[in-house]
Amino acid sequence: KQExxxxxxxxxxxxxxxLVLNCSFTxxxxxxxxxxxxxxxxGLTSLLLIQSSQREQTSGRLNASLDKSSGRxxxxxxxxxxxDSATYLCAAGxxxxxxxxxxxxxxxxxxxxx
Amino acid sequence: xxxxxxxxxxxxxxxxxxxxLRCKPISGHNSxxxxxxxxxxxxxxxxxxxxxVPIDDSGMPEDRFSAKMPNASFSTLKIQPSEPRDSAVxxxxxxxxxxxxxxxxxxxxxxxxx
Lengths: 114, 114
Fold this sequence. Notes:
The complex is a heterodimer. Chain A is mainly beta. In chain A, 0% of the residues lie in helices and 54% in strands. In chain B, 0% of the residues lie in helices and 54% in strands. Chain B contains no helices and eleven strands. In chain B, the strands form two sheets. In chain B, strands 2, 4, 5, 6, 9, 10 and 11 form a seven-stranded mixed sheet that branches. At the A-B interface, strand 4, strand 5, strand 9 and strand 10 of A face strand 4, strand 5, strand 9 and strand 10 of B.
């Protein structure tokens, strides 16, 4: 069964710290992996998409990497800010592009303390 | 583009009533997904469409759930009859399937069945 796991479920860090959020998946034949941010009571905002042929993607203070052989992806947040507080979800797609559906982890709730 | 638009944002209904959730995908996108989010189970894919055709409805929990996509700009998810255990946040997402199948989510409909 294709599953996505995110551990820990919650994380609290002081402002300014560089941090890494982990995501693991069970099947290395992944098509793509997407990281999302969800604020309380809100929808999901796409942060980064990594295709299976890529190893990483960057956007501002965010960097996401993908290691298919080990079944892992990490989201690196540099110089964290209180505004980064949210739940971060990773989602893996195993089907081909024509039938691409995402399987989600349960998310990591991040709290950045001022 | 205004993004994926869902309506209503909140719905409170009595057990046994019919509920219809609506979604307008991003213009030009050819895939549409319905997800359900609960604290216990996280985000679960219910059904997805490609070019208005249902591709995989294996996530639809029961026959009480049905989804339609009569054209490229509109989809509905119907629950009849509704039950308290259907209470959740329902998300619609869309993507344009090419080599870069990034999914974009709506703000969700929070359904409460009493």
